[in-house]
Amino acid sequence: MTDRVALYLQDAHPLRDAIEYVQYAEANNFEAVWQAESRLVRDAIVPMAAFAATTTRIKIGSGVINNWTRNAAVIAATFLTLDDLAEDRIILGIGAWWDPLAAKVGIKRDKPLTAMREVVEVTRRLLARERVTFHGQFVHLDDVELDVVHGRKTPRNVPIYIGATGPQMMTLTGEIADGAVLNYLVSPKYNEAAVSQLEEGAKKVGKTIDQIDRPQLVVCSVDNDRKKALDGARKLVTQYLGQQPHIMKASGVSQELLDEIGRVLTWPATEEQILRAMELVPDDVVQMITASGTPDEVKRKVREYVASGATCPILYPLGPDVKLMIDTFANGYN
Predict the structure, then answer these.
(1) Is 95 helix (H, G, I), strand (E, B) or coil?
(2) Residue 203 lies in a domain
(3) C-beta of residue 181 within 8 angstroms of C-beta of residue 64
């Protein structure tokens, strides 16, 4: 069986170029493309629709929308519409969002586990074409169904994946979701706890870990010039070391390095501070939490993530040559 591999796109490329990359990935055996939606820069749904309309086989996932700014009924209607465009190829990836961005746009993220459970349950039932009455703490529906007048009235095959980070959300994901979108900029070792938490949740409802798909975002900077590849990832790594030191420590980054970077970077960091802090980040740290280097090196690193529990690497291309990255993984990572 061919190794599973997927493409991750944020907002680094013009949308028309992104469409071309997705078509190229489809032609080179990639299973899926996941479109980011996190910062207030690029909505996930419009690119997903563009990818769905211009491809024939590749799966298209949101990586990830949040469960706060669209209500459950609107989420269900949106993903039913995408499924109309690309039947059985759409994946609903959803996450709990993050502060301070959520707070800055007026969202108070109280009881995130309850909110996620309610949204996932109701969205799934609506996509199954049920008529739903539901009165929870966050979701309130009174005799609602997706009002399909024209077109397919059958239940829709739209799996739901949660982009979980914390242990409680990871356990909930194992219980209620079809899959987990595992985070990026972590070491393969970091996956051990995530897989254990997913398994704990799965057991609550009589599932096994093998029934929970576990695609993982992996930052990938590939170049035949090794130094260029590593430098291409170093800036992103440096910013993450400053913003998420607890995750970086759990991945094996030394407290000494984290302290050094913390003395240079403020929040929000200036470009000058980032460039200064980059000089402190050695190659081995870049390669610890990303797949960066020559084609052989990045494939070897991706194999580590898979060996640690990921079922499908979702490759986030850094650097200008996206097609080189796709070519590198056209026949898998072995």
Answers:
(1) strand
(2) yes
(3) yes
